[in-house]
Amino acid sequence: MSLMVMKNSPPEFKADAVALVLSRPDRTITSIARDLGVSR
Known about the structure:
Elements (H helix, E strand, L loop, with lengths): L2 H6 L2 H13 L5 H8 L4
């Protein structure tokens, strides 16, 4: 996620994004970021 997204995203979004990455070790951070509509 880019610094801009991290600064402007609500804490719930950040927590959900991290939980998604941790729960899906078969996927890359880049692919998850793309699905969430943010840049890595």
